[in-house]
Every structure is written in structure tokens, then in C-alpha cells.
């Protein structure tokens, strides 16, 4: 058993999108160990009901607890919107999502108070970004747009493909006409096509990637709870573990294309057993 400070952080997402959060955690708090679970068998979450997303999230939390994690990051906007509050009530581990950190920085970044949010159908339907932003800055106008095809395009690896750009043009036209000044990438898959979104939406719009802000908030949480790993060296040769519910090899190939760390092993588990 590890000391609590040396225990890993659990991170989960519906698929590969949460790797954008993992990448930032690796960069911002490199001394921490990570256990990642990607629910690749059941992606996407954005078209699922609230009850289903909560059920999936509970199963994943039960699995992460078997890995003796000390804190959990829900690196999925849909699960953050639907399941975070329920899981926090049911779980004794510190837990954060990706919505609040992103909303906070968008509120600070917006110069004209016109903030766009692109996300999954579930996140948009929950209006969680709008509610949180307007709680911080009541005068803000928040425009939400579901972009469900982006998740499939990212999972397919079509990050800089003409089809992805054409889809982005269709999705973002309304935001351009509304003259937003800030755009939240409200799904952890979306930062992987950030350059395409930037090309379509224009240089003058501030793009908000909640992954970076989430890593910073996690660092503060670990310090506050006195569970941060204070050793500034790696605990072991392999400080990062990756688990999926399907297609382990495909996940590993994709992960190695975006992470600063070489993943040598990804294990597939039956998440329905938890």
C-alpha cells in the first residue's frame, strides 16, 4: 500500500477526450501518479440520459476505488454536468469536474459578456455552463450549441481533416453571427480539434480549454486536503496506468499521439462488473 500522498489520482472520461485533462495534469503536477479510465465501449455519453450517465459514472468510481486513488477528476463535461453532485454526496474522496474551472476562466476572459459554449447534447441540455457563468457574472449572455459529431470525429482520429472543418463551419456559423467574444470548448474531446475551431471561429475570439484550469484546480485541491505528493521524483518506473472498456490497442495508439509520455500498456476491463 502507498502512503495517501503517494496514491494515484483517478481520472475518467467517456473515451479519449479526458486525455486532454491527463496531459495538463502531467504538465502541471508531474510528481503525481494517475490512473485513467476511458469508457470506450460506451462512448459517447453526450447522447445518453442523466440516469444512464450517473449509473456509468458510479461503476467507474467503484473501479477507481479498487486502484486506491486519493482523489477523482471527472474529465468529461457530460458526467460533470449530470453526475458530479450525486457522486460527491456518495463518495468520501475529493472529487472535481471540468465545468466549473472552465466557466470561471471564461467569465474572466470575456470582454463583451457574449460567451459561447459548444458541447455535447447532454451538457447543453443541462445548461450547467450558463447557470454557473451567470452566477459569477449575471450580465453575461451565454449561447449554447450542441456539436455531437465532434466526438465521433475525434475518436476517429480526424483531427485536421476537411470533413472536420466542414462540420465545424456548419456548427459554428451561428456563433459567428452572434459575435461572441469567448468560446468554451465544453467537451474534453474538443481541444484536440482546437486548431480547426480556431480557424473557423477567428483569431479575435478567446478559446477556453477547461483542461488546463482543471489541472490547476486539482493541484490546489490536493494541497488543501494535504494529500499532494511532495516528492519531486517519480514513485516508480510506470507512474501512469490506463484502463479502457474496449479497443485497448486503438486507445493506446491514439493516446501516444497526444501525450508527452510513452504509454506502453493499456488494459481492457469489464466495467459492467463494478
Poorly predicted runs are: none
Structural class: alpha/beta
User: How many domains comprise the coordinates?
Assistant: 2
Helix content: 40-55%
Structural Rg: 18 Å
Account of the 3D structure:
- 48% of the residues are buried.
- The strands form 2 sheets. Strands 4-3-1-2-9-10 form a 6-stranded parallel β-sheet, sandwiched between helices.
- Helix 3 links the parallel strand 3 and strand 4.
- It is an alpha/beta fold.
- The protein has 2 domains: 4-97 and 212-273, 3-Layer(aba) Sandwich (Rossmann fold); 99-210, Rossmann fold, CATH 3.40.50.
- Helix 2 (50-66) crosses helix 3 and helix 8 crosses helix 9.
- The two termini are 22 Å apart.
- The chain is built from 11 helices and 10 strands.
- It is globular and about 50 Å long.
How does the SSE layout of this entry go?
Layout: E1 9-13, H1 19-28, E2 34-38, H2 50-66, E3 71-74, H3 77-90, E4 95-96, H4 99-109, E5 114-119, H5 121-126, H6 128-136, E6 141-146, H7 149-155, H8 162-178, E7 182-185, H9 194-201, E8 206-208, H10 210-224, E9 240-244, H11 248-258, E10 266-268
Parallel strand pairs: 1-2, 1-3, 2-9, 3-4, 5-6, 5-7, 7-8, 9-10
